[in-house]
Input
Amino acid sequence: MTERGRKALLLAPAGIWLLVMLALPLLVVFVFSFGERGAAGGYVPAFTLEQYANLPARWTAFKNTLILAPLGTIAALVIAYPLAYFLAVRCSPKWRTSLLILVIVPFWTSILIRSYAWIFILGGRGLPALLESIGIDDIRLINTPFAVLVGIVYGYLPLMVFPIFVSLDKLDKRLLEASADLGSTPWRTFRQVTLPLSVPGIATGCMLVFILLMGEFLIPAILGGGKVFFVGNALVDLFLQSRNWAYGSAVAMTLVVVMLVTVSIYMKFISRLGGQRQDVSLM
Amino acid sequence: MSFDMSVTMQTIAELRGVTKTFGNVVAAKDLNLSIGKGEFLSFLGPSGCGKTTALRMLAGFEKPTEGQVLLDGEVVNDLDAHHRPVNMVFQHYALFPHLSVFDNIAYGLRQQRPHVDKQTIATKVEQALETVRLGGFGPRRIWEMSGGQQQRVALARAIVNEPKLLLLDEPMAALDRKLRKEMQFELQNLQRQLGITFVLVTHDQEEALSMSDRICVMEGGSIVQVGSPRELYDMPRSRYVAGFVGTSNFFDATVTDSAADQITVRLASGQKVHGTPEIPIDAGQEVCVSIRPEQITLTRALPTAEIALPVTIQNRIFLGEHTEYLARNEALGDFHVLVPRQAELNEGTFNAGEQAFVSWGEGALLILEN
Output
């Protein structure tokens, strides 16, 4: 077999998978988005831009997603970085493995169950009751954007911790000694050596979390109580409840475009931040 | 060039009774050493002998468990690495991969407070690049540089700060043999040119012998002997030093008589030899005698020397300027003999199986502690 043939053979399974499971459905959604809702729901072929003209009706969902997804990503980064730094740089190897396992343990249970747990924590008899007992009254947490934020940060934290941990773990610790040797204080060493060299991990973590958050629907549904909903919730609603496939397709296509635009802006930004470094890998 | 500590002007760094333990492991034991200003000193020993620990204590990466580290007359035990006017060339260079060659070299200058102005930094970095013969390489990325070039960048990154001590941790371990030879000459030139005190750590005796003013030989965490390369070669204090600095033939012997300035030992072959050991040795003690391969004369006729031993030639290796023979004596065992080209031309080549005599001049045989 020729070299080309062998390469094609290796790529074939993934290629076929992408074609059948991604490209074709995307094409179907694209075509549907120009159609109309049938009388009994579903899809009737047509060519109209009516669905796209109706998009402003779902503006709130887009707004919530576009605010809470970046906010959640940043919050996860702020919490995950010190944790990853501790695990990779400061923690004694004896404890490292056990602590890393603790980071993964939540994944052993369904996100559904874990999010329900937060209903009790944030609900009337949970944290608000505790706050009331120390004199802080009328705090409402459940079904607020804050509850959704807490939920998504909680749910996606490990996805942020791991890439950052890996980039910090493979950081040559002698570079830190070299920096100190050249007269740099620990804080400046962090800023000038550790942080720039962990950019690939930060980039990967943010990308993973951000993309998944853009499509999130479960956590807003559970902790937002129908008040804080994402585009994902709108899609569930359109496809499964009102059975308006054409409109749902238009919303889905718009989400894909918004995601592509934000991610490519983000990639530009990161590649500039990472300089012309050879070892910047984004995913 | 020789460097005599007794007449030297100034001590720049000093270890006073320094001990370092990691858990139950004693990495360095009661080290006492003065490093003279402008000297090229090497710590020599196998891995685990404590030489790197000694260097790291000078750099400030490790704090001594006991004793004092002095820099310029001041105790610096508690001074962190980033406050010490000392720079290090790391074993694998530890260059910053995210910075250009220029920024790597400028790194130390940029940490200085008050700030050094941009123009001065640019000038100094360019100068340092010229010094290590990398002029014009400033904008390059680290990964674009070869191993030898990276080594020079690491050197430039350290010398640009004009440190009081330049510490070199096995700086040539990663270079191939030819490049290493070149770098040895260059390092030595650089050291004279800059007048900076160099402290080198190496396990390579050739490296230590060729570059250093003084060598500090270490074993098991302790300093066993300090001296110029020539002193260590000619007057090793122990079998360990003689074996580590150059190569030698060793034979067991027993002390039969010990006087104030001369002792007599008996070789396994029955001959008695006299000598003056570096340290007092009592009668009855087991010692070893050492003789360098190039100090042995190989002859066909019985020589007139005090001791001449009959040997059988076992093996011959032609080395160009020398020929190395392996010659066996019934009682003592194998002698490595290095015969210079001229002597071989006079005496003729010996073949395996041939009978010959080994002999040596007065003072060639050293009596050493086992």
